[in-house]
Please model this.
Amino acid sequence: MTQAEIEAALQTALRHCETAGYPLNDAQQQILFAVLRERLCESSPDQRLALNPLAALTSDQRQALFQFIKAQEQQNKSWKTTLLNDWLHDRTSGTVQFIRDSFGLQWLETITAADLADYEEESVWLKVGDRIELSNGLWEWVQDTGPCSREWFSCTVVGITETQSPLYKDGVAENQFSTNCTVRFENGNEYEIQGVYEWNRPNWRWEK
Model:
């Protein structure tokens, strides 16, 4: 069963409970879904990723989420609490605003530490010595079709720096984090990628 099929079956069961005069509250529904998902994963390990709520995200969306989680952990904050506070006060959540816009509170509450661990490989941050490939889209205009197409160039990570700068919204300053990455190409030239996770993620990839 996929997550959508499980949710459909649960919704049917919940309607039967309500019709019988025994409606379940939100907390009970969350527990029921979590237990059912856990049991299905135990009986069929291959089901785990299919049932993982993070499977609904694109690779770029998961990367944005992991970066957000990392920034919150650096401030000793709970990433879920930060999102919920943003929603409660009708504040934008920056690069993870898509969670509120497209998925919502119920989806957010289903995410567990085990779900995040399933995508641990995607959440691994760059470190000095890693081999990656850069797109020429970083320094020139490229098109899918046309005289200047996308090319990829191998390089080695030689430096990582993290910066924070105040972002003012409604007169209130909030810290905005970004990560810059310095790489060295085969010919010895070096290049700094600004916002390597925040806005330039589509322009680099792990070396194949």
Observations:
- The first strand starts at residue 131 and ends at 135.
- The chain has eight helices and five strands.
